[in-house]
């Protein structure tokens, strides 16, 4: 037998899969509480009913319900759809990966906005699909006309992210319907709504209502952000039963653990509290955006729990200035994404931002 390197065991498509690049942790600074504003996590623990429910003992020796029946039923009731319209997975990330698996193969094309969620190129490349990232508009929203133009006979999947991570704007109802009218019915459109609970823009698309109009639309949502359950890994898809049945085939069996299923159910039963907290984060976000604009920054409208500073070549220096103040923010090279944390953290970021402007830009907006 000839000796081969282990690399020859791996599909060539893997060469196209980007590696995950973690952000920098905050430096330890005497007298300063460190804040991690780099992962869009909730800065509070889950609501108290969920924390209490987690002390209930579940036996780790037994497998979870593979179909997550109780959680699926709870979600179906909450969303006012039947259970065959909902599939749960180990985070929205598993749902997105499953949606890529059920649509993409070598030779097919996938269209997504860029910059957007880092998993899109990864999940697409794993399936050997041809990636078509489409740049954002000058306002940092989706360029939906350009995305529609990019559709060819080989296009199988289109990913939309509303509100868009990392830049913040939501897709409006008008933009969405104009776009969908141009998408062939055999192309699956995924609306990634990881941050929908923080959206306060009345013109944003009402995704659940849209499901009734477009059979090729599927929504992705998660308990990671507004429900403050990122560590528990629970996400879900809402769509037509045929698509949902395929997603169930493509997700890992037993992926959502019993404590996770239970936490998600309790959190949904107290969803009013979750929404109240999301809206207070939205209010803090709007104040933070106003304060940055008052300093002279060009900040896109954000409908999520983070704000984007389009710093371009100054991104690394800004991240470094934050790290020195014991603040972790996310440098994505074309800009820096800052998650909304407690008021003290946002005040500290504003101080860093003001000093940064003085040092790096005298008058001009960036
Ligand atoms: C956080 C996030 C998700 C899902 O994350 P999970 O933790 O896997 O549920 C999906 N899309 C976007 C844009 C996100 O930011």
Automatic annotation (TrEMBL):
Pathway: Amino-acid biosynthesis; L-histidine biosynthesis; L-histidine from 5-phospho-alpha-D-ribose 1-diphosphate: step 7/9. Homodimer. It holds the Pfam family Aminotran_1_2. Keywords: Amino-acid biosynthesis, Aminotransferase, Histidine biosynthesis, Pyridoxal phosphate, Transferase. Its cofactor is pyridoxal 5'-phosphate. It is an enzyme of class 2 (transferase). It catalyses: L-histidinol phosphate + 2-oxoglutarate = 3-(imidazol-4-yl)-2-oxopropyl phosphate + L-glutamate. Residues 36-351 form the Aminotransferase class I/classII large domain. This is Histidinol-phosphate aminotransferase. The modification N6-(pyridoxal phosphate)lysine is found at residue 225. Coiled coil: none annotated. PANTHER family: HISTIDINOL-PHOSPHATE AMINOTRANSFERASE, HISTIDINOL-PHOSPHATE AMINOTRANSFERASE 2. It comes from Yaniella flava. Its EC number is 2.6.1.9. Belongs to the class-II pyridoxal-phosphate-dependent aminotransferase family. Histidinol-phosphate aminotransferase subfamily. It comes from the Bacteria.
